[in-house]
Automatic annotation (TrEMBL):
Pathway: Isoprenoid biosynthesis; isopentenyl diphosphate biosynthesis via DXP pathway; isopentenyl diphosphate from 1-deoxy-D-xylulose 5-phosphate: step 2/6. The gene is ispD. The keyword Nucleotidyltransferase applies. Its EC number is 2.7.7.60. This is 2-C-methyl-D-erythritol 4-phosphate cytidylyltransferase. PROSITE patterns: ISPD. Belongs to the IspD/TarI cytidylyltransferase family. IspD subfamily. It catalyses: 2-C-methyl-D-erythritol 4-phosphate + CTP + H(+) = 4-CDP-2-C-methyl-D-erythritol + diphosphate. GO terms for molecular function: 2-C-methyl-D-erythritol 4-phosphate cytidylyltransferase activity.
């Protein structure tokens, strides 16, 4: 079977929590070390020779993407396929990519430019070896507290055992057909999809966990840009 590996980057959002330091546009276009964050992310994915093409889903009225100089432009496709939610953007971009059902799809956050080549290779190798979808993630290292609000203050209700708890990252790698079907089923039944794995879990699938790294941080707050600039 001639199966491809493609990557999808949902980049249709704004990232309001990351605003600051004089930058008001979508966070994926904020410059880190002279290069838009989105371009760093694309470069990280293209570092793996097994990835056939990177498909980027941007908002229909995106006025920024045209100014991005992509590495290896022959391996990059831009789709104005942004939707009302991240899950909608992923589904729309997956459909636009025209991936065959048996192709593998790596969905990766635009705001994770620090993806390491060895982590990416480990995820791809593990999923292919076991013919099973999976995600990058890291075991929870700290004590976890569950909070409640008491007189307007956040207070600890209980300590949550961290055994078996992982923090999900991306890329998340699944066959195109099952991923499409899971996203469509979740949307039809009103299930809130927080990541691709959650949609697959909703359909009874148990994804693999492959250990990632701290450098694969999702840039969320203004201070995260300085940290990522150091790593990149």
């Amino acid at each position: 079977m001639n199966e491809k590996i493609i990557a999808l980057i949902p980049a249709g959002g704004v990232g309001a929590r990351a605003q600051g330091s004089g930058h008001s546009g979508p966070k994926q276009y904020r410059v880190i070390n002279g290069v838009p964050m989105l371009v760093h992310t694309v470069k990280a994915l293209l570092s793996h020779a097994g990835i056939d093409r990177v498909h980027i889903g941007v908002a229909p009225g995106d006025a920024y993407i045209a100014a991005c100089v992509m590495p290896e432009p022959a391996r990059v496709s831009i789709h104005h396929s942004g939707g009302a939610s991240r899950a909608d953007t992923v589904l729309n971009t997956l459909l636009a990519s025209q991936a065959a059902d048996h192709d593998w799809v790596l969905v990766h956050d635009a705001a994770r430019p620090g993806l390491r080549a060895d982590s990416l290779a480990a995820l791809i190798q593990t999923c292919l070896l076991h013919d099973r979808g999976g995600i990058l993630a890291t075991p929870v290292p700290d004590t976890v507290k569950r909070a409640v609000v008491d007189n307007g203050l956040e207070v600890i209700e209980s300590t949550v055992p961290r055994d078996g708890l992982w923090l999900a990252q991306t890329p998340q790698m699944f066959r195109a057909g099952p991923l499409r079907d899971a996203l469509q089923k979740a949307r039809a039944q009103g299930f809130e999809v927080t990541d691709e794995a959650s949609a697959m879990e909703f359909c009874g699938y148990a994804p693999l966990l492959v250990k990632g790294s701290i450098e694969n941080l999702k840039v969320t707050w203004p201070a995260d840009f300085d940290m990522m600039a150091h790593w990149l």
